Amino acid sequence: MLPTGTVLYAMYASLGECSIAGISLCSSQAILGIRPKDKLNGDFLYYYLLALKPKVKMLGQQGTQANLNKQMVQDFRLVLPSLREQVAIAEVLSDMDAELEKLEQRRDKTRALKQGMMQELLTGRTRLV
């Protein structure tokens, strides 16, 4: 069992994908569950691993599908700022993610509105002149 707050890290196929468990869960060996200790903030680790994703994709052992092994991940070296700074960094990045989500929702709504307007105008149901 992996507790809530565990950082979930893809070891096979979707190399470098990660998330944070919102509930307790079980997983296969394709997902590495990382439970941060006292000196490491889970949210900071999540963003750190996201930043490593391009490098990790190149590290994967090639075969039928690319994969990592536990030793490769254990060999990752993290330069850790103080726990207070880790929390501050994670909060800034989380706030940016929230802002991006709002902008993406606005963009999607605007696209849908444009699609509807195109339908009205191009079929002649709405006339401008």
End-to-end span in angstroms?
66 Å
Structural class: mainly alpha
Q: The CATH topology is what?
A: Adenine-n6-DNA-methyltransferase TaqI, Chain A, domain 2
Topology, number of strands: 3
Description:
- With 129 residues, the chain is mostly helical.
- It has a single domain, classed as Adenine-n6-DNA-methyltransferase TaqI, Chain A, domain 2.
- Helices cover 49% and strands 9% of the residues.
- The chain contains three helices and three strands; from the N terminus they run βββααα.
- It has helices at residues 42-59, 70-74, 83-122, and strands at residues 7-10, 18-20, 31-34.
- It has a three-stranded antiparallel β-sheet, covered by helices on one side.
- Strand 1 and strand 2 (18-20) form a beta hairpin.
- The longest helix has 40 residues, at 83-122.
- The model has no long low-confidence stretch (mean pLDDT 89).
